[in-house]
Each structure stands twice: as C-alpha cells, then as structure tokens.
Amino acid sequence: MQKNLLRFYPDPCEKVSIKGLYLAHQLHKLGTAESPFVYANFLSSLDGRIAVEDAVQGATHIPKHITTASDFGLFMELHAQADCIITHGGYMRALGEGRLGNILQVRDKELVEWRKNNGLKPQPAVIIASASLDFPLHSSLQEHAQAVYIATGRNADPDRIRYWQDLGYPLLFTGEDLMVYGAPLIDALSGLGYKAIYLIAGPQMLDTVVREKQLSRLYLSMTHQLIGGKDFRTLLTGAMLGPEGNLILDALYYEQDSPPGSGQFFMQFGLERSTGTDI
Q1: What sign has the CA pseudo-torsion 142, 202, 81, 125?
Q2: CATH classification code of 27-270
C-alpha cells in the first residue's frame, strides 16, 4: 500500500504521496556548471542527535530506532538526482569495517531508470573528503564504473598524496592546511562541470559549506523521539553562526506512527541566496 504524508506547509494542508515526493523537485535542473545546486540531507532526533557514540567500539553510529523506510526512500530520491555526491574518509572506513551500509550507489531499479530518462549517468561521481587520506576504497565504486575524486588540503601527508596519485585517482586540493573547505571544494566541482551536488558527508562538511555560503537547500528528517546520551553528534561542529545560518522553511510534511510509537517531520529549508525555484 502506498504511504501518504500530511503536508502542513505550504498551504493548503493535504495528503500527499511519499513516493516521488523529492523526485518532483527536479534538483538536477536547478544548477549550472557555473553555479551548482548544492543540497544536503540529515536525519535527526527531536533533541538534535544525528549520531551517537558506541562506548564499546568508540565509533559513532545512527541509532537504528530513529531510521525508517520512509526516510531512506526520500534519501535515495535525493541521491538519484545528483551529478556527484560528497562523502568523507570516516564513512569509507566505517563502510570497509562493515559498521555502515553502502550508500555510494543508486540501486533501486526505478531510480536508475529515472536517471537514464533524465539524462544523468547511471551512477553519480563520488567525492571523498579527507584530511588524513587514510581510508579504503569500496569495491562497488569500480564495479559501477563511478568517477572518484579525493579532496584534501594542500598540507596533507605527501606520502598519502602520492599513494592515491599512483593509483590513478585525481586529487582536489581544496584547503590551505589539512582540511577540506566548502568554497574551494564547490568551486573545484563546478570546474569539473557538476551541476547538482549532494552532500552526505556529515556535520563537519555541512559546517563549512554553510559558513562559506555554498549551500542551496537543506533537507531534514526529524523523528519525534528524545535520545539523550552524553556522547553524540549534531548538525554542526564549529563556532556560532551569524546570518549565514538563517534558513527559510519551504515545506513541512508529517508522517504519523513512523518510527513506531512516534512520528516524524520531513522539512525542506532554502536560503536567501539559493537559486532554487518553487516546489
């Protein structure tokens, strides 16, 4: 049975189908090579947790009880519209260790067909942001013939730089120290011709693209659950933001009883500098 959401904003309040909800945004058409459309998506609890730390393993993970099929389906609809996705070395390490699932490819047959029908390559390119350059590459990247770029700072370890260059992977130097910064990264991807850039790289990368005014749109799924805990991750990592942190609500949807015994909001925020159009 097809699931419906209740749209609270904008008016009128009505039931809408969750399937195809984000595909209808046509994000792949909103940017140009000169001015890419950069969008991010996060899942959060009501008290702002996007991940918690495992005291035994010493690694962060997303609590399974806040994840839902609805959120993952919308996540993949956003994925399907991207020319390239930005992830990070920490995710590649977790993927290699089996601590996280593989989200590097669009695997749903309908979404793969959607990409084909909309003039996109079978799979998006993958940009891996890393200060240490110490991570494994997942075999699925080669299996799906995806373009892979590695972004790092100019002062990254020269031996690790040579390691990746010897393997034939192009490096993007997008920061003056070890870290990757938002503005030079998006500028480099613009130079490569990417128009729709999907950020799935975590709070540190979100922080720099917001702070450097590169974000076009933020999607946020918020479950109506309180998690608590002392060791957790939230949306941003840096110092307090000023006006660059101001967001404008574009859409708000409500799903009842998912997660079980709770519910969740699906929210979409734009920025005054965004080049996006009405949904």
Answers
A1: negative
A2: 3.40.430.10
pLDDT band with cut points at 50, 70 and 90 for residue 279: very low
Q: What is the pLDDT of residues 186-214, one digit of tens each?
A: 999 999 999 999 999 889 999 999 999 99
Strands (E) in the chain, as ranges, are 4-9, 14-17, 37-44, 51-53, 60-61, 84-88, 125-129, 148-152, 171-173, 196-199, 217-223, 232-233, 248-256, 263-270
CA separation for the pair 41, 220 (Å, rounded): 6
**78 φ/ψ angles, rounded to the nearest 5 degrees:** -70, -40
Q: How far apart are CA 136 and CA 28, in angstroms?
A: 29
Global confidence as pTM: 0.92
Higher pLDDT, 51 or 147: 147
